[in-house]
Amino acid sequence: MRNRTVVGIEHVRLLLIEDDDLHIELIQRAFEAWQSLFDLSVARSLQEARALLANNAVGVDLIICDWRLPDGDGMELLDPAHPLPVILMTGYGDERVAVEAIRAGALDYIVKSEAAFIDLPHVAQRALRQWRAIEAQRQSEQALREIEARYRLITENTSDLIAILDNRRCFSYVSPSAINLLGRTPEELLGRDAFDYVHPDDVPDSTEYWQSIIQHKRTTATFRCRHANGSWRWFECDIKAVEQDNASAVIIIGRDITARRELEERLLQMQKMDALGRLSGGIAHDFNNLLAVIAGCTELARQSLPDDHPAMAELIEIQQATERASALTRQLLAFAHRQQFDPRPINLNALILDMHKLLRRLIRENISLQTQLAPDLWHVRADPGQIEQVLVNLAVNARDAMTSGGTLTIATTNVVTDETFERLYPPLKMGEYVRLTVSDTGIGMDEETRRRAFEPFFTTKNPGEGTGLGLATCYGIVTRHGGAIDLASEPGRGTVVTIYLPRAPAPEQHASPMIDQAASFSGSETILLVEDDPAVRSLAARVLRAHGYTVLEAGNGLEAIAHAKQSATIHLLLSDHVIPHTSGVALADQLVTLQPQIKVLFMTGYVTEVQQLRQRSADMPVLQKPFTPAELLQKVRAILDA
Fold it and tell me: Which of 142, 480, 522, 543 is 20 to 30 A from 126 (CA-CA)?
């Protein structure tokens, strides 16, 4: 329906539906005085009227229709689905008919008479005002329905959790996303206290916190909410206090950030482990220097005394203690990625089968050892000794967790990872991996213990029963191999350690070189000994000179270069890997220009220049500290004779 305005005056289009010519004439005469306001059109049947109404070019603002027409009933125009502004006329003054017409949707009802026709323009104006009010209300209701439908579409399809809490903290509305996020239907949550599902550590005083929400009107918070399966999910929430039905209410929009929190914790753990690794490596380096002196001097003392000397038992005890301390530093170095590293393509199945007897001896008789090894397992590039150390450490931990017996299971399988793997283990890329799992049926760990399990020196064992380096060593070894290690555990439900190692090509077969075991350890060559620790340097020099070698001592790189410039021939550079003013590799490169024939042997507490050593391993072998005099002499002779 459209209105027209001419020279500032609104024109209303009227449609009169009437078949009586006299009545048409009387009505037209009544509207003659209102021509400036009304344009009157006439239809003599319902069919003719419907044709005019169907013509979009003809706008009709009000219909005045006779009750009885040749082809129907004026009530047929009153369709609730398609309401029209209609005034009904009838020649009968039946009140029942009038009530029926108004209920059907007519704006007014008049009984035909000359007086009624004269008053019809006034009736039409009232009806128009009424119709416009009805239309305005209908449009408002339609707009409201559209808004409600739009918000319902949003709340019912969003992946976030949307909830409304009443003034008692109970859910009065919960979006359907609760099914996916919390494993609960909205109906389960309605009327329940929202704080019953929040982790108590996140809201220690829920009453006080609720009051602060009401007072501050808007805030953000991060909570753990309990899932229906018993797990805790992290939610980042936007919280808004509002007034609803004259009472306080709170709107919560929560986003599940569990995956993000797990990733952040992994990154923090990696950073912490890296810092601890650097610290541990430095400590182990200095400790190895001390052990080298203790072990060397003890062996020299034993060689100078008869077997029945009273001090021999104490010297043997010192040697055994030195060996235990050396094993401890090797674990520290493995954790810190500073241990000598000799990776090669290996098959984990073969390694596990070779270790079966050893592992069987490590665990008690009341513990069953089971293996589930995948056929056609891919090779991995790994240091066999270090992987063996990982398995030993995990087996010992499992044994200690199963004091009353149980089952230790070692399993392998090939896996092809996807994007989820990259998110869980950020440094690694999706691809082909070999998965190694070591699981037990022991006492398990609580969440706090599980989170700290890989920290060095962290242990739940009694004093003297463990060093706290077992899992830390495993972590260091696995990450050094370019892999990832994870631990899942719950109290009373055992522990599962999962390790991923990248797939490697199968190894090529090469003949093993023969070593002359009968070679003498003595010699007459000149050796340039570079070591900044005076005690280690003095011990090594004494041992070498006692076996015929000429030894030039240097405490740093500058002294070493000075010796090289002044000496005619130096056969071997025996240098610590970490020396003042330069590095061992850099020093070797400089000396080669001065002494082209020189050979190189590094002593090291840990390998700092891993990549350089890998590239030059053929001509730069390493002697791991702490070493005994016999090991030093054997290695020197082997290098000189190579």
Answer: 142
What's the rounded Cα separation, in Å, for the pair 369 and 371? Answer: 7
Average pLDDT of the chain? 83
The tokens of 5 are what? 């305005």
CA 545, 537, 518 angle in degrees (round to 5)? 45
Per DSSP, the three-state class of 104 is: helix
Alpha helices in 158-257 (DSSP H): 178-182, 186-189, 206-216
Rounded CA-CA distance 14/58 in Å is: 11
On the 0-12 / 13-18 / 19+ scale of CB atoms within 10 A, 496 is middle
Residue 124 and residue 3 in contact, taking contact as beta carbons nearer than 8 Å: no
Q: Which of 604, 603, 575 is nearest to 590 (CA)?
A: 575
Phi, psi of 362 (to 5 degrees): -70, -35
| Rounded Cα–Cα distance for residues 281 and 606 (Å) | 7
Q: Smallest Cα–Cα separation from 281: which of 593, 578, 615, 617?
A: 578
Which ranges constitute the DSSP H helices of 206-257? Answer: 206-216
One-letter amino acid at 348 equals: L
The DSSP bridge pattern shows strands 367-373 and 406-416 to be parallel
Q: With CA atoms as reference, report the closest residue to 636 among 623, 626, 617, 618.
A: 623
Which amino acid, one-letter code, is at 202? D
Give the DSSP letter string of 401-412.
H-TT-EEEEEEE
Read off the pLDDT band of 56 (50, 70, 90): low
pLDDT tens figures, 597-634: 999 998 876 654 444 444 454 456 788 878 888 889 99
Q: What is the mean pLDDT of residues 78-100?
A: 82
Residue 252 DSSP label: E
Instruction: List Cα–Cα distances, 600 to 40, 430, 469, 538, 562, in angstroms.
Output: 116, 40, 33, 19, 17
In the chain the first and final C-alpha atoms are separated, in Å, by 107
User: pLDDT digit string (tens) for 321-364?
Assistant: 887 777 666 655 655 555 556 688 999 999 999 888 878 888 88
For residue 626, say if its preceding peptide bond is cis, omega within 30 degrees of 0. yes
Q: Is 23 exposed, middle or buried (0-12, 13-18, 19+ CB in 10 A)?
A: middle
Please indicate, yes or no, whether the overall pTM of this predicted structure exceeds 0.90: no
- CA distance linking residue 535 with residue 38, whole number of Å: 119
One-character DSSP codes across 313-372: HHHHHHHHHHHHHHHHHHHHHHHTT-S----EEE-HHHHHHHTHHHHHHHS-TTEEEEEE
Q: In degrees to the nearest 10, what's the CA dihedral of 550, 555, 558, 561?
A: 20
Rounded CA separation 398/392 (Å): 10
pLDDT in tens, 449-474: 888 888 776 776 665 555 567 788 88
And the tokens for 220? Answer: 């953000």
Tokens representing 509 are 């077969």
Burial (0-12, 13-18, 19+ Cβ within 10 Å), 303: exposed
C-alpha dist (Å) from residue 177 to 180, 226, 232: 6, 15, 16
